[in-house]
């Protein structure tokens, strides 16, 4: 009979594992950190919140010393790992996923393009005469894939697999566009010597890729060098994460059939042999085969997923979502920056995605996914208006002065919350799909 306390421990462990691997759990942690940041920033102890992120933090070895504020290290340091993860997702989808063929990729890419153009044009329309804030046109362009897919996961069978795949591929294509926008339009003065050094690291990474180097340590060390060069190049350092991801090999050392055959042989030997020494060798051999059948890209992505979902994105939200609300929120939302972001996300995403998808389907350029209606596509456009992580990130790059940055954060939080609620309600009203459909 299993002791009662052991049963309780087992249930708690299983519950934690279910939560940890759930597609919605990362979004829950993100929401909690956002709420905590907002509460602290508007509490009687708000000064400690802002002092925390202004604390100086230094790293160095030898004659090299890197010193900056804690907020800077969050946005330019650990966020490079988030962009590495985004880059790995982009590469996987292009090579073997929903962007791997023109037929699969066409509709979500067209939709993503419309979903970037629409918000940018609306923001520019409200800020065309505001030279100090016009640079924020990139803020409402991107979709927060974690939140969008998390809400879809809550809906279960109310949404078909085709809609989930469409939204995921759209968000990945959207992220590709956001990365290009950051690299091309949100840079400071360029240091060509550092860009040259970054090119050297990139060359080494490409050589490692060509020769199918398996060691994640090699890519990590070269990636740190690439990040250091970008940090001082004038191009935002997080782009190094995307470039690193594109060089990580997607090839495995052995294929699935070889893996099955060799593991089966090892298991049979393990059953027949009673020697503890031989047993350990066989178990080690199976572990080695498990590593060989996985590509470095898969191992990187698998290792980074919990780190990104449960540490990097929550820390980023905690550091950037804390806005001290002084004065009228209504005035902030009805300012040129506020209107540009809110209407850009809420209205621009809908108009851009729906119009571009309609053109693609009407002129037989692409077709709607199986079992997906126009009503479902419209519901998905609301989820695409959840900008949050990437929008907050670009806002930090776009504005140096405090006022437009605070207004942009308020607008992002408002628009993302509204879009999440409306998108959830719209898709929740869909009839539950039968298993035979």
Structure description:
Strand 1 (56-61) and strand 2 (64-69) form a beta hairpin. By secondary structure, the chain is mainly alpha-helical. Among the domains are: 26-52 and 68-75 and 101-186 and 305-428, Na+/H+ antiporter like domain (Na+/H+ antiporter like fold), CATH 1.20.1530.10; 256-289. It has 18 helices and 2 strands. 40% of the residues are buried. Helices cover 73% and strands 3% of the residues. It has a two-stranded antiparallel sheet. The protein is globular, with a radius of gyration of 24 Å.
Task: Give a brief rundown of this model.
The chain is an all-alpha fold and 437 residues long. Among the domains are: 26-52 and 68-75 and 101-186 and 305-428, Na+/H+ antiporter like domain (Na+/H+ antiporter like fold); 256-289. 73% of the residues lie in helices and 3% in strands.
Q: What structural category arises from helix and sheet content?
A: mainly alpha
Mean pLDDT reading:
84
CATH architecture designation of the domain at 26-52 and 68-75 and 101-186 and 305-428: Up-down Bundle
- For the termini, the CA-CA separation is 45 Å
**Approximate shape:** globular
Reported for the largest beta sheet, the result is: 2 strands, antiparallel
- Here the CATH topology of the domain at 26-52 and 68-75 and 101-186 and 305-428 equals Na+/H+ antiporter like fold
The CATH class name of the domain at 26-52 and 68-75 and 101-186 and 305-428 reads Mainly Alpha
Compute the gyration radius: what is it?
Answer: 24 Å
Number of helices: 18
- State the helicity in percent bands: over 70%
Q: How do the SSEs run, as a string of H and E? A: HHHEEHHHHHHHHHHHHHHH
Order of strands in the sheet with the most strands?
Answer: 1-2
Query: What is the H level of CATH, i.e. the homologous superfamily of the domain at 26-52 and 68-75 and 101-186 and 305-428?
Result: Na+/H+ antiporter like domain
What are the segments in which pLDDT stays under 50 over at least 5 consecutive residues?
Answer: 11-21
Total DSSP E strands:
2
Strand percentage lies at under 5%
Multimeric organization? single chain
């Amino acid at each position: 009979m299993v002791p009662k306390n052991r049963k309780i421990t087992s249930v708690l462990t299983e519950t934690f594992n279910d939560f940890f691997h759930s597609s919605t759990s990362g979004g829950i942690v993100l929401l909690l950190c956002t709420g905590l940041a907002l509460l602290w920033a508007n509490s009687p102890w708000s000064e400690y919140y802002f002092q925390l992120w202004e604390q100086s933090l230094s790293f160095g070895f030898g004659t090299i010393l890197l010193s900056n504020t804690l907020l800077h290290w969050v946005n330019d340091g650990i966020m490079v790992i988030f962009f590495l993860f985004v880059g790995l997702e982009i590469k996987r989808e292009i090579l073997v996923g929903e962007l791997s063929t023109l037929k699969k990729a066409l509709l979500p890419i067209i939709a993503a393009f419309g979903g970037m153009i629409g918000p940018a044009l609306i923001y520019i329309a409200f800020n065309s005469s505001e030279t100090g804030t016009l640079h924020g046109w990139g803020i409402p362009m991107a979709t927060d894939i974690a939140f969008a897919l998390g809400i879809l996961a809550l809906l279960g069978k109310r949404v078909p697999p085709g809609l989930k795949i469409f939204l995921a591929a759209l968000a990945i294509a959207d992220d590709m566009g956001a990365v290009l926008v950051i690299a091309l339009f949100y840079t400071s003065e360029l240091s060509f010597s550092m860009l040259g050094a970054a090119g050297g690291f990139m060359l080494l990474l490409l050589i490692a890729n060509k020769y199918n180097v398996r060691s994640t340590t090699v890519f990590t060390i070269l990636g740190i060098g690439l990040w250091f060069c970008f940090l001082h190049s004038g191009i935002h350092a997080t782009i190094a994460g995307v470039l690193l991801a594109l060089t990580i090999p997607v090839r495995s050392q052995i294929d699935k059939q070889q893996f099955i055959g060799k593991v089966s042989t090892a298991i049979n030997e393990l059953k027949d042999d009673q020697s503890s020494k031989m047993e350990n060798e066989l178990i080690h051999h199976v572990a080695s085969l498990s590593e060989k059948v996985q590509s470095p890209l898969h191992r990187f992505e698998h290792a980074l997923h919990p780190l990104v979902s449960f540490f990097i994105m929550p820390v980023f939200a905690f550091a950037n979502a804390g806005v001290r609300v002084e004065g009228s929120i209504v005035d902030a939302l009805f300012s040129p920056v506020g209107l540009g972001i809110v209407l850009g996300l809420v209205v621009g995403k809908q108009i851009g995605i729906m119009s571009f998808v309609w053109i693609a389907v009407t002129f037989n350029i692409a077709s709607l996914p199986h079992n997906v209606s126009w009503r479902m596509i419209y519901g998905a456009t609301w989820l695409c208006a959840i900008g949050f992580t990437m929008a907050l990130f670009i806002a930090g790059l776009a504005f140096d002065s405090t006022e437009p940055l605070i207004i942009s954060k308020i607008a992002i939080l408002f628009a993302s919350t509204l879009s999440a609620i409306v998108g959830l309600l719209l898709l929740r009203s869909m009839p539950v799909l039968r298993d035979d459909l």
